[in-house]
Amino acid sequence: MKKVKVSLRPIVSGINMPTVLKTAILPGDSVESLFIVTQVGEIFYIRNGVIGTFLDIRQRVLKLGTSGGGYDERGLIGLAFHPQFYYNGLFYLHYSVAGSQGPVAFSESFKPNPCDPSTLNLKWDNRDVKYDHIDTVEEWILQSNGQPQKRRSLLNIRRPFLNHNGINTLNFSPETGKLVLTTGDGGSAYDPFNLSQDIMEIAGKVIEIDVGIHTFIDNPTVVTRFHELPEPIQEMLTVIAKGGRNLTGISFQRFNNKYIKYVGNVGQDLVESVFSFAHYQPIPVTQLVQASMMGSAPDQEGFINFGWRGWEGALPTAVPRGCPGNTTLKEKNIAYFDEAVTTSVLRLPPLISYYHEDPRPGKFAGTALTGVQAYNGNEIPDLKGSVVFIDLARKQSAPPIRGVLAYTKVRTDCKQSDFNIIETDYNFGSQTAYYVSLGTNLNQSRLFLGVYGSMRVADANQGTIFEIVP
Q1: Alpha-carbon distances, residue 37 vs 104, 153, 332, 362 (angstroms)
Q2: Among 72, 139, 404, 460, which is least packed, fewest CB within 10 Å?
Q3: In 3D, which of 57, 326, 282 has the Cα closest to residue 181?
Q4: Alpha-helical regions (H) of 216-336
Q5: Is the whole-model pTM more than 0.85?
Q6: pLDDT digits (tens, 9 = 90+) for 397-443
Q7: pLDDT tens digit string along 308-326?
Q8: Which residues contact 467 (CB under 8 A, 6 or more apart)?
């Protein structure tokens, strides 16, 4: 693959942790504005180089950075504009609710032990009292006076741990017109309750929401499983995929009259993955619930399975541990051998994989996949028709920390492909530069990168938004 070099053009700096970057045309306007979502609950927009505040819901968002030294994966993590936003003013938010903090579902630092079966089949009991927080998906409207107002809650989801809530979790499908929600596996490590493979669990799924259905329920019950939802809410939902660990949203790319879908999945210890598929067979939630009540399994032919937790991308999920006799070596035990075998044929192999340790020339040792976007622009010819992705921080022995920008060429057959690093010429100097978010405009002809100077959300105002340019 060709080596590509780009420049980073700063757009705005001094903002809080940016989680979503996308554009929309405001009602009555004629140009696209860039919208920047911050994890703490702000939404800014930039129009013709001038920044303004679109919405501030910091009072609605759970207070972040109170544990783990300020690191946090909760907050405002999803924004999507209705395809008819210009006319109807509707947009959608996904965030962690203020005041919903509870005791975590499992207090110990979890790591499976293949020699101890009791660590491989934990159950999430007493869910109404043992959980970390509640996430909500809401519908809002931009009123004619220019003021946004909440209209209704679509989902209220109880989450067992603070991490793995998803990244850039809300996007509209140009194929179906439905709102697509991506959820993480619930958190901790290694999906201790195996929520992502359980078809009845909301965690670890890709879910379509038909927002055109009026349920007349403004604030649904807080749930963790699909059958707990009120029936009118069930009727809004279909499930596209399961087996996600921590999903980086979904990106659509039109190619030869079909849409190719890309979903990034953050890895555990070994590998980061981007999945790609064109055709899928969604399962209506009402069908899932009916099958569960009858004690049968729903037909899952054509249903997408990313393979977690039996598989970490292209590899069976292993538990690495150091070798005392030689510190340069690691022993890796397959943690969930039976699950890896069971899902080996059913799972979707990743389009690309990159590893936490990678000696190959032209590759890099990654940390965490934080964004995936299709690019169809002409300004960077070598990237046209590509899928661009970012990693939080390249593993290296000496500071300062730098994120990584990379790409792979589109494959209409969605089969495994190779990738290459995109070189950048921006000089961050001694500043830490975590690559935390990646976005695009409406026709995917421009790319935007969110960079932060710390991994602690409590370290405020260390964010810069760049446009990726030739």
Answers
A1: 27, 19, 39, 33
A2: 460
A3: 282
A4: 231-234, 285-293
A5: yes
A6: 788 999 999 999 888 888 889 999 999 999 999 999 999 999 999 99
A7: 999 999 999 999 988 888 8
A8: 8, 9, 11, 446, 447, 448, 449
